Amino acid sequence: MKHYSVMLSESIDLLDVKRNGLYIDGTLGRGGHSIEILKRLKEGQLYVFDLDEEAIKESKERLKDYQNVTYIHDNYANVAKYVKKETVDGIILDLGVSSPQLDDEKRGFSYRFDTRLDMRMDKEAELSAYEVVNEYSLDELKRIIYEYGEERYAPSIAKNIVKKREERPIETTFELVEIIKGSMPAKQLSQKGHPAKQTFQAIRIEVNKELSSLKKFLNDFPDLLKVGGRASIITFHSLEDRMVKQTFKKLSSIKVDKRLALLPSEIESPRFELLNHKVITAKEDEIEVNLRSKSAKLRGIKKVR
Predict the structure, then answer these.
(1) Taking the complete model, does pTM exceed 0.70, yes or no?
(2) 300 by DSSP, 3-state: which?
(3) What is the pLDDT of residues 276-296, one digit of tens each?
(4) Which of 46, 93, 182, 287 has the highest Cβ tally under 10 A?
(5) 200: how many CB neighbours lie within 10 A of its CB?
(6) Are 164 and 138 in contact (CB under 8 A)?
């Protein structure tokens, strides 16, 4: 299946790439966003991050005509280890699982293929979906599926996972799908959408520590951007979007104690401003060719002082 970079032009436009700037693509994937940044860079430099070595290998081939790229096999959450404070002109994150990862049945990300439970973006990581499903306690499973998957049937699913693994380990994606289906009422199973979607999302988030990575990045990135620097972030589910939205709102506003009688000139201005007050979503023509873009949300922010 062809790989599409979600909201490609919209997300790159928010960065307003300078020809001599320093930019970071924290989620390289197959290089779709990176190549658009590089087309606009001349004397500048691009740092690209990915946990998936296959993604880096494929992107190196795609970006072979560009010399101003530094490839880093690491989590984007660790970007502060590689660049100095107030040196970066722009950062882009596309937080979705890439199409090649979902479409590679051996990676165990998808409920569409019957394969061993895995879901690791970094193949060298110790924790996989197999360990989460077979070793986490009932309470841990229930919490993960409810919080990360926002799955209303989390208690029933967690209970049936524990019950089934007492007989023998749960090894494949289809085994897990059947447990999930057996944990839901017939009325729910007749609803649109795959019944395992939210549980698979929850386990994938846990395996790859996705929310803790985003939390660390959102804490660190403001100090990495120089004045005029921008961040452009694409999210794919409400948990991530909520984190980005709340952080951007906090950075771009000032809390004023109404009990103090201050003149407008005495109120400190915020360090950041929002690049879009209304969230940007994919256009209909993009959704038609890439259904996965339907849930995507794009937000941008600029450092102004």
Answers:
(1) yes
(2) strand
(3) 999 999 999 999 998 889 999
(4) 93
(5) 23
(6) no
